[in-house]
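Journal club prep, shared notes

We agreed each person brings one worked example of a sequence with its structure written out as tokens. Mine is G domain-containing protein. I'm keeping it raw so we can talk through how to read the token line rather than staring at a rendered picture. Sequence first:
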Amino acid sequence: MPHMSIMSWLKDRHGLAFQLDDDDIVVFVVGPSGSGKSTFVEQATRSYDLVKVGTGLRPCTATVQAIRCELSEGAKAALGTTMQRNIVFVDTPSFHTQPGRHDEAAYNLKSWLRKSKSKSTPSLVGTIYMHRVETDPRYESVQQHLNAFAHAFPKDFVPFPQRLHAVFSYEGVIPHQTIQIRRETFETQLHALRPSIGQPKWVTSFHPALFRQGEPETAWQAVLELFPRA
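Then the structure, token by token:
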């Protein structure tokens, strides 16, 4: 993948997005509480004044936030397109995965999707799944979280973001052996993913580099992996 600085990716940032357009590239950022979703969006979009980033594992994103940015010519070339396109990062709340429990986060996402889509059909959609490397993947179900995410999509939302790229986030110092073990455990869950009810099969990939605050280029490299050139 070509190396591009954050300044060379973005031509302009338009701020919060309330409607999705036909020429939008839409990236849904999902994951458990404290996994780094808001930090990923903040770093990728340079939206330090718009995105609320929490500290610790308590969720700070209660509603859906979407930020639209205009891609530079270099970014469009890297993504294999010459069209005039914007990219919309959708920062989602964390979903409840316990059966039978009311999930306000899923309800909020469904409401946002119904209001934002209108009659438009975004050209490309995909999902970034964040996981904090300090958390043992054995105690979190990727399948259940994605089922809750998929369940929030109205039946008329096309296309569904079935292309999924997983990213490990981290803070502090983690032993390399621990990272490797947890990466293997997480990848096993990815490979075992079943289609969510009523949706197509997930198409998964895993980012080779760890993401942390202050490394926006890693976020953009993940976007490149999510939308590989044809």
